[in-house]
Every structure is written in C-alpha cells, then in structure tokens.
Specification:
Layout: H1 4-15, H2 38-42, E1 47-51, H3 54-65, H4 70-84, E2 94-100, E3 107-111, E4 125-126, E5 129-130, H5 133-136, H6 148-159, H7 169-177, E6 179-180, H8 183-191, H9 193-196, H10 200-206, E7 218-219, H11 222-234, H12 237-240, H13 242-253, H14 264-268, E8 273-276, E9 278-282, E10 285-289, H15 296-306, H16 320-340, H17 351-354, H18 357-364, E11 398-406, E12 411-419, E13 427-428, E14 431-432, E15 445-446, E16 449-450, E17 468-471, E18 477-484, H19 488-501, H20 507-512, E19 516-517, E20 522-526, H21 530-533, H22 535-540, E21 545-549, E22 554-561, E23 564-569, E24 576-578
Parallel strand pairs: 20-21
Antiparallel strand pairs: 1-11, 1-24, 2-3, 2-12, 3-8, 4-5, 6-7, 9-10, 10-17, 11-12, 13-14, 15-16, 17-18, 18-22, 19-20, 22-23
Helix pairs in contact: 3-4, 4-7, 7-11, 15-16, 15-19
C-alpha cells in the first residue's frame, strides 16, 4: 500500500499552496529578507513572535506588551490569523499546541476536530468505492467539530495571565476596522473559488463583483468581529452552544454540496485533551513534539534518529549524498506512519516502539549511503497488537504555524488548521469551517484489514501537524519550529532541525533551505533550486522517479542564541518576526 504514496506525491506537486524557501547560496529562489537589527531581533530576552502574517505577529506582540504571557499572545495570534488568513486556520478548525511553561518540561494540548456521533466507517464510500478526495472535501460531509476555541480555553485556564476577553481585542479590531488583501490571500482566493465562494456570505465578502478581492483592497468582516465579541464575553460556551452552535450545525446539514450530519449535541460535547509530549534524543539534543493523533512527533523523530549514525555534518546541503540519506529516512518513517498512526483513544498506537532507539537503529541499517532501497515498508515495532492496513493521504493547504516566547521563558509552538484552502467552503458567522474529516481514510479497510485511521464516531483524524521544541545539551531551549503543508509538514520540520543541529545554520537559513520530499518511491525536489541540478545525482543513486515540485510551503520558528530569542519565517511566505 505504500506504493500509493507515489500517487500522493504526484498530486502534491502541482497543488501545494504554502511556501518553502532556499537561501541564495544554495538556490536561485528569491533570497530571504534582510534580518532586523540584532537588538530588535533578539529583543533582549523580552520575547518574540513568529507568525505567517505580520498583522498576526503584531497582535501577539501587543498582548506581550500589555503584560500577557506566551499563551495569551499565542491565542491572540491564532485569532488574528483567522482574520487575515481566513483560508488557513482559525476557530472553525483545530490545532495542536506544544507548551513549555518555562521549566523545560513541555505539555501538549490536542484541539483536533472530531467526527460527529453519527459517523460510520463507510462515510466516504459511494457505490462500493471510496469517494475521490476532490469529491469528498467540499461541503458538510467533511466538516468535523472545531476544537481550537476549546483548546484555547483549556490552555488559557491553566497557563494564561491576562483576562480571556483581552486576548480577543486585536483580532476584533482587525475584523471590524478592516485589513488589506495581500498577494497570498488574493492568489489563494483566485485559485480556490470553488471553496472560497461556496457560501453566499463568503462570495459577498471575498469576491466582490464575482472576482477575487484585489491586492491592496480592504476587507471588513463585521460578522466575525461580532462572533469574537460574543466568545470574548461568554467564553467557549458562546461558540459550542446557543446560536453559534445552531448556525454551524445548520450550515453543515444544509450545505449546497455533500450535506453533513454534525449536530448541536456534537458541538456541545466536544472536549480538548491534554496529552503527554513525545520526546527523544537526537545526538545531544532533546526533541519534543505532539503525539497521536498527530503523526508529527513520532515521524519527525524517526527521520532524525535513523540518520544519527551518519555524519550528516560531512554531507552538508551542497552534497547530494546528504539529501539522499534524508530521502531514504523519510521513506522508512512514512511507511510506519501510514501503518500505525491514528487516534490513540480508538487505536493502540505503539508510540514507545516507534520511538525506541534500538528499533530505529534497525530501521536505519536498511539505509545505504550509495544506493536506494528497492521498497520501503513498515517495520514491526514493539507494542503492535493488531494488523492495520496503511493509508495514503491527500495534500492540504489550510494550515498555519506560529511560535511565541515571553520574558518568563514560556514557549508556545502551535499549528492551527482548517485543512484545505478555505476548508469545507462553508462560511458561518464570519469564519470558514474545516474539512478535516478528509484526513481520515476514505476506505475503512484494505485487503480485508481495517485501516487504523478509518472514520469512527467521535474519533479524531490523523494529522501531520508537527509543533516541536528542541532543547540543547544544557537543557535549555534551542529551537521551536513548525510548518504548514499537509504531509510535507513533517519533512519541513525535520529539515529545519537538521539544518540547525547538523549543518550549523541559523533557523532562518534552515527554514529557507530547498525542499526535498520523498514519502514513498517518488522523490520530489523544489524547482528552481540547486536540488533540481542534483536530479541526475539522485537518479544515479537509484531514485528513478525523481522530479521537481513547486517550492511553496511555509514554516515559522524561534531559536535561542546565547539565551536570546531570534525569530525566523519562511522567506517565500508572508511571515514575520516581531518583538514586543
């Protein structure tokens, strides 16, 4: 079944809508913007915000200036992103939060969407066959119960400092007073009018005169401002019960495409989950991330740990061998991911076995520096109790990551998503609803075996979101990083860590490295970079199906150098780093 990933890779190539980058000494892509002056960039340890849009980063910095901590500021960023990046994330979707309170012991919060209580494994079956992704993703059938607001409330109650209502103010002002359309938003609107304009309210707001809102035009979203004011005043109940819940349920059940079955009871019963962070060591660094239902921590760690026996520093970013090793490790890690990762409340996920150093050493022994594996299949880690069939996934483009740190040392590394660009296309009270249920397998079984990530009532679909914190040998934070871009998120994060840890790059340089993605038998490299020039070398190493892909992913990070936080943002995104 892993061979199905070849199809996934070919589908990803023309469709990616996020942003990846390459530094000027490695590629011909646009160079990274000049960094801010050192004093402004470091902030003298007063804090740092890195987000996919400067206005959202400004919102977080404002909350820090008002006396808030990283949790307060992080949620202000999330809400502001909902305004200025409506295609990517927000309260209509879900997310994962990796939080270090300042003591080096991270905790994680699971705000992943859930399937309605009436959902069954054959949800996306039609005439005995799985629906195509394009057929399934628009409308109510793909909409899960949003989790971001509940997750925000749980983390804020435990760690927040400012009053709940105060963190909503920057986003309320942006929605009420208006924001300018950026090139990224305009281009996404133009490319996704099937979903972006599905609802009449969205068409009126984002497609004036029937065309995507032009670059530089101002959009005001008073309906969303009013929604945020209600949640600010009434807490999460104002989202999950009452009129807002009825409006969400009504939009899903009466969707113009694929009507769904989400009810007000589904919304009222949603609960976020505090989970243990998944941590392991790579060389002298401790890597901590989000465990299941995210596949981020286990797969990022597997990619890294399987490379530990190689001298990656000697095979730097200009050496095809280093990238070949990276590709082979991806293939092994993704094979395990497809086989075993799912919601741990429904499936016994062998996290301990998947991250066991001895197991990953055995997996690493399959990697040859001078040749390509004929095939990469899942291993058998300790703790496997059932045989599951692997599942391939489709790309998504509706995700955003941000990192916030404050003067007290608290760190927020959070990824938020509504899945596809503009999610399900359903627009309710000023925000888009997700289509996250397409992250489930559309086929409940393969060759007579159940798929671990099949649809079930109340279940959370598997995710690739990979918010991560890296600690140095002194136990202090070294890097907090995450990305957007569906299943490529894992690779973007692993690449950034390799860039910092093995290749001695700054976080900005590491994020800006060219992109290589090889989850199966296809090897995709970022077009227009030096990796494209390495294609003959990759083919000589055995990567027969090696080709280019658009470099349009996005990542954000904060690194610590001499105790000072320094922000990083993908130079091909509209990301920004702001100090309070």
């Amino acid at each position: 079944m892993i061979m199905k990933l070849r199809l996934v890779a070919s589908l990803l190539a023309p469709a990616l809508l996020a942003a990846c980058a390459a530094p000027s000494d490695l590629a011909t892509a646009p160079p990274a913007p000049a960094p801010p002056p050192a004093a402004e960039q470091s902030g003298h340890a007063v804090g740092m915000v890195s987000a996919a849009d400067r206005r959202a980063a400004d919102a977080g910095a404002r909350i820090l200036r008002e006396g808030g901590n990283a949790v307060d500021a992080g949620f202000a960023v999330l809400l502001a992103l909902n305004v200025v990046e409506p295609q990517s994330s927000g309260i209509g979707g879900g997310g994962f939060l990796v939080l270090d309170p300042g003591n080096g012991q991270p905790v994680t919060y699971d705000g992943r969407e859930t399937a309605p209580a009436s959902a069954t494994p054959d949800r996306f079956m039609k005439d005995g066959q799985p629906m195509s992704f394009v057929e399934a993703w628009v409308g109510g059938l793909s909409t899960g119960v949003p989790g971001n607001v509940a997750m925000m409330a749980m983390a804020h109650e435990k760690h927040g400092k400012l009053p709940w209502a105060q963190i909503f103010q920057p986003a309320i002002e942006l929605a009420r007073d208006g924001f300018d359309v950026t090139p990224r938003l305009h281009n996404t609107l133009a490319a996704a009018d099937r979903t972006g304009a599905l609802s009449a309210e969205a068409r009126a707001l984002f497609y004036p005169g029937g065309q995507a809102a032009p670059i530089g035009s101002t959009i005001r979203n008073p309906a969303f401002a009013a929604t945020l004011e209600r949640i600010a005043a009434g807490g999460p109940k104002a989202f999950y019960t009452g009129d807002n819940a009825a409006d969400i349920s009504g939009a899903v059940q009466n969707a113009p495409a694929n009507p769904g079955d989400l009810t007000v009871q589904d919304l009222a019963s949603y609960r976020p989950v505090e989970r243990d962070a998944v941590c392991g060591t790579y060389r002298v660094y401790r890597i901590c991330g989000m465990g299941p239902p995210s596949s981020g921590a286990t797969t990022v760690f597997a990619i890294l740990k399987q490379l530990e026996r190689f001298d990656m520093a000697a095979h730097g970013p200009g050496d095809p061998v280093g990238w070949h090793l990276f590709a082979e490790s991806q293939r092994l890690a993704y094979a395990d991911r497809e086989q075993y990762l799912a919601d741990p409340d429904y499936v016994q996920v062998p996290v301990k076995g998947l991250t066991d150093p001895d197991y990953l050493a055995r997996r690493s022994a399959l990697i040859d520096m001078g040749s390509t594996m004929a095939s990469a299949s899942a291993g058998t880690p300790e703790g496997v109790s059932l045989a599951f069939a692997p599942q391939a996934e489709q790309p998504e483009h509706g995700t955003s990551h941000f990192v916030v740190t404050d003067k007290g040392g608290m760190i927020v590394s959070e990824t938020s998503t509504i899945e596809a660009a503009f999610g399900s296309g359903l627009f309710v009270n000023g925000f888009y609803l997700n289509n996250e249920l397409t992250d489930f397998s559309r086929a409940p079984s393969e060759n007579g075996q159940p798929v671990a990530n099949r649809v079930e009532a109340g279940k959370r679909p598997r995710s690739s979101m990979s918010p991560t914190i890296v600690y140095g040998p002194d136990g202090k934070p070294r890097l907090a990083v995450g990305a957007a871009g569906g299943t490529t998120i894992i690779v973007q994060v692993a690449k950034a860590i390799i860039g910092v840890v093995d290749w001695g790059l700054t976080a900005q340089q590491a994020i800006a490295l060219p992109f290589l993605y090889s989850p199966g038998d296809t090897l995709l490299v970022e077009e227009g970079t030096d990796l494209e020039a390495m294609l003959p070398a990759f083919r000589a190493l055995g990567h027969e199906d090696a080709r280019t892909m658009p470099g349009r992913l996005k990542a954000n990070a904060v690194e610590w150098v001499d105790g000072q936080p320094i922000g990083a943002a993908d130079p091909r995104s509209e990301g920004a780093m702001v100090t309070p």
